[in-house]
Amino acid sequence: MAEEKQLAVCEPEAGLAEREGAGRLPDAYEAEYMSGEGTVLYRDKSRAPWPLHAIFGAVSLFTIGAAFVGSGAWIETVATVLVLLPVWLLFSVLRVTVSEGHVNVQYGLFGPKIPISAIESAEMVEYDWKRFGGWGIRLNSEGGWVYNMPGDGGRAVRIAWRDRKGNAKVTYVGSLQSEQLAAQINQARALGPAKQPAALEP
Fold first, then answer.
1. Which ranges does the record mark as transmembrane (predicted)?
2. Domain boundaries of the chain, sorted by first residue
3. Domain 18-48+94-190 is of which CATH architecture?
4. Is the pTM of this model over 0.85?
């Protein structure tokens, strides 16, 4: 197993997304799908804040309650809950892994795997969620893909990179630890090229 650089784990601020920092072992999903290439320099996992869970829970309870007062609504209720549950689970975790070979971003099951050698810059930025069109996975007005979680404090890392065809791409990754994330990406770039597979599109 590749040796990991240990970083401090920061406690989440009240009302913000819960965060698990790099000073931890990878969870089962990360070990299987986000193991990185070469040494893992940084690992971050942000969970949705409790108000988002409360909204999903309230919608589910309302849907189930409506089935009791209505007649013949159980099929619709089951269908609605089956749709809500995977959406709930899918968009409640944002993971980022920085290794010598890649920056791997996963919002649920979706996100880019960007070769370090393809990155031209990585910098911390502050953003207005309204300009980005909200939270989740978004294509903003500037043509950049955004992966952000409610409660990130309007902080993100802007990654400018090129795909295998040389086309310019921009990816924004929301993070309470955006300065640290940007620093680790730039550290990976400074380490020199590793074996680089082609970038995977979001």
1. 50-68, 74-94
2. 18-48+94-190, 51-89
3. Roll (2.30)
4. no
